[in-house]
Amino acid sequence: MSIITPRGFLAAGIACGIKDGKKDLAIISTDSPTVTCAGVFTSNLAAAAPVQISKKHLLSGNSNPRAVIINSGNANAATGKQGYQTAEAICERVAKELGCSVEEVLICSTGIIGTPLPKDKVIDAVPKLVNSMGPTPQHGLDAANAILTTDTFVKQAVIDKGSYSVAAMAKGAAMLAPNMATMLAFITTDAKVSTPDLFSALKYGVNRSFNSLSVDGCTSTNDTVLAFASGQSSTEPTVEELSEVFEQLCQDLAIQMMNDAEGATKVLEVKVFGAIDDTQAFKAAQKVANSLLVKCSLYGQDPYWGRVVSELGSAGIDFNIDLVSISYGSSQVCKSGQKASFDPEIVKEYMSNKIITITINLNLGQGVARFLGCDLGPGYIEENQGTS
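The structure assignment produced for this chain is given below.
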């Protein structure tokens, strides 16, 4: 199970010296003449040089990108003209090694912001990286390891549809917020998919997974999700079918990321029903999941539903406290905006679980939404109090 499970793909991951001997440089590539590619990128106006170049290459219209090179340990963000030129030079070297045009190469970086990426280390390692590419699960695992930063485990997922398969790998443990892709993720499939259909399926999957989770409400400068379709299968799924597969795959990765959130001890699932519409339901679920007070109460294993009510009332949605009900797991703790009768021992036991579900019914309409979050404890502060 790895990113190169679908036919037509190769991958590699090596150490180039950014992270002192640890794997920090990866590549995914295909020489399929029928490859298509689609991507979504951060909405942060401080987008890093790799994001700028990947968007330019993807939208150039000259050809479909056939490879992406990824480095970890340095984001190449807030590095000015020098950073842009460095990213361009890396793409040019990869193109030379693969024998393709520079527009057919995309680039992603992740790590510390504001520090120049060691250009020579990366460029000098490109020949070794390309020569290391292979089609085995180990090659895919090497690539998945090479893109990690503060992650504690690799994040991979594969769905086998019989006549075609879809695979993905991702990194992400903080600076995760729903404002496009929320981290780095890469998807491959051997299905035959047009570029417009691939983009539609990707957007659908991202919106219902990565765009519905938040660790800390922070949107990275480098967020990118890329999808490649090699066309090596004889199957051409409908855009509706592929969208559902992408949603399932991305939700799997989203759960893995929440389980690896920096300093987190619990995964929070917020379900909202009965909003005026789905948009308001999403705003309500997001407000609760992002609440620092709710996060702290989860860390303390306290079902403090009053904090949830408070966040709902300030979420900027239609709201009537006299109609609201809230449940932690199967126990209703708030009914009609007031404390409900529940067994505190059952709730106490439930709050010790790794995954906590808060279900909210606004009783105003038919809008529904689901949002993922996590608790907030000392571990997050320890991880993010400095750059060293």
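Interim note for the steering committee: The longest helix spans residues 239-259. DSSP finds eleven helices and 15 strands in the chain.
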